[in-house]
Amino acid sequence: MSSKKNLVPEAREGLNRFKMEAANEVGVNLKQGYNGDLTSKQAGSIGGQMVKKMIQQYENGLK
Predict the structure, then answer these.
(1) 48 contacts 19 by C-beta, under 8 angstroms
(2) Residue 36 buriedness (CB in 10 A; 0-12 / 13-18 / 19+)
(3) At 60, is the secondary structure helix, strand, or coil?
(4) What does the pLDDT look like over 25-46, one tens digit per residue?
(5) Helix (H) or strand (E) holding 28
């Protein structure tokens, strides 16, 4: 069971900006709202880019 409820509702806008930025970086045309026409490969590349950036930010914070 999936839930779109964020623990911090104010974070939704920031997460959406982060997702759009990651999509642009991997060359996927993401639009506001529903993106059900994306392939699994496209969606995975966006998620992978987001994780990659989060790890980089975490590692930079350790230095």
Answers:
(1) no
(2) exposed
(3) helix
(4) 999 999 988 999 999 999 999 9
(5) none
